[in-house]
Amino acid sequence: MLPDTVEYGEAKTGKKTEGVIYSFFSFSQKMATPLAGSIAALTLHLCGYTPGSTVQTDLVLNGILSTLTFTPIVFIGLSAVVLRFYISL
């Protein structure tokens, strides 16, 4: 999809801006990694996760379950909405 974006931008503007597009993409990927880790850590903190404990409460176990299932489902749904606009071009 990234090369398509570069070619589309060049076709629309007549200018080659692949450096800006690739650098923005790289920056976005690098920022997404710590953001995803922060969301997972925040979820565990809010649920009361205790590191090193062999027994966790039901709330913590449900928090872990939601981090591994419901959170990705939400972000996949958001991605599908964005891709819907991409496909319609």
Brief characterization of the structure:
This protein has 89 residues and is mainly alpha-helical. It has helices at residues 2-13, 18-47, 58-68, 70-87. The chain is 80% helix and 0% strand.
The biggest sheet, with number of strands, parallel, antiparallel or mixed sense and barrel status, is:
none
- Class by SSE composition: mainly alpha
Distance between the termini: 12 Å
Radius of gyration: 19 Å
- Roughly what percent helix? over 70%
Number of helices: 4
Strand content: under 5%
The ordered H/E elements are HHHH
State the low-pLDDT regions, or none: none
What is the approximate shape? Answer: elongated
How many strand units?
A: 0
Q: Mean pLDDT across all residues, rounded?
A: 88
Present the secondary structure layout.
Blueprint (H helix, E strand, L loop, with lengths): L1 H12 L4 H30 L10 H11 L1 H18 L2
Helix pairs in contact: 1-2, 2-3
Question: Could you explain the architecture of this structure?
Answer:
The protein has 89 residues and is an all-alpha fold. 80% of the residues lie in helices and 0% in strands. It is built from 4 helices and no strands. It has helices at residues 2-13, 18-47, 58-68, 70-87. Helix 1 (2-13) crosses helix 2 and helix 2 packs antiparallel against helix 3. The longest helix is centred in the middle third of the chain and has 30 residues, at 18-47. The radius of gyration is 19 Å and the shape is elongated.
